[in-house]
Amino acid sequence: MALYLRILYIITGLTGVHSITTVSKVSVKTGKSISIPCLYGSQYKNHVKYLCEGPKWRFCRDVVKTNKADPSGKYSISDDKRQFIFTVTINNLTNKNTDYWCVVEINNGPDYGGHFQLSVTRGIPRLYVDHQRITGYIGENITIRCHHSNSGEMKWCRLGRNCVTGSSGSIDGAAVTAHMRDPNVFTVTMSGLKSEDSGWYLCAEGDIQIPVYLTVTEKPITTTAHTFTGDGTITTLKNEQQRASFDLKILIIPLSVLIFIVIVVLFIWLILRHKQRKADSSVTAMARVEVAYAEVRPKKKHLGKVDQEVIYANVGNIRRKQAEMSLPESDGEIMYSSVVTIKKQEGKY
């Protein structure tokens, strides 16, 4: 029984019960990049997905996987498990990059994939859009311009859903109108957008498609402010400009406060340093001031008391003072001379 189920599983895999929905052929310019969506079954949302390069399924080469990035940077892959779409991006295209396969890895069984082809040209592509990724707002309209070179039938489709081929229709409840008033331009307008309208769409002409990813989001709230200038004119600013100005003020105010604090601290430090230096200078000057006393005694040949003249010498000052000294009894001539250095003191000498 197990062998039978195994054989049945392999047969269903080979007969296309497992399938991937993607583009069939995309026209791109040499050196550019292209993103390709690949829609898979919801039961495989947790499986590994990868891109395989080569025209033949059995001999294609794995170039990037969701669990292993491409070190060269030429290929990238992402998986949207909510919408069951993985997207592969190929950069710096050349005419050698033409055949690829979007593949889902099947555990204990054969992988399954969907083939797409790139038509790489040096000139203008057969079908292209201004931007492959666009943004619309809930409740509003979005317009897409598909540029084409042939006069075939044009249509606008959602990947894996229905298409609008005429001048009007709807896709998942979103109203779609289309026209070709401009030469070689297929203009599509989607109205009454909802967040559920986000996803991959295709602009198609015959067997050529170009995928477009639409993001539908809330529109940013904008307000206007009127500024009256001196000459009587009124300047209107959007809230983004006001926000930028407000953000600038947020930065300027703390920076100004910080600079002010630094200046005050530096000023106080300079004052304290000046006072400290002044105090140190006073102490040093007082410590260095010395008083020198010089005593000179004239020669005397008699005993007794004599009036002695004492000279006091001080730095910057010379004072004279009469003093009375007693000499010892002696018959000879005696002369005393002494120099004494002492610290200057307050009070009477």
UniProtKB/TrEMBL annotation:
Keywords: Membrane, Signal, Transmembrane, Transmembrane helix. Residues 125-222 form the Ig-like domain. One of its GO terms (molecular function) is transmembrane signaling receptor activity. The keyword Transmembrane applies. The keyword Ribonucleoprotein does not apply. The chain crosses the membrane at residues 251-272. It is found in: Membrane. SUPFAM superfamilies: Immunoglobulin. GO terms for cellular component: plasma membrane. It comes from the Eukaryota. InterPro entries: CD300_family_receptors, Ig-like_dom, Ig-like_dom_sf, Ig-like_fold, Ig_sub, Ig_V-set. SMART domains: IG. Pfam families: V-set. Its main location: membrane. Residues 1-19 form the signal peptide. This is Ig-like domain-containing protein. The lineage of its organism: Eukaryota, Metazoa, Chordata, Craniata, Vertebrata.
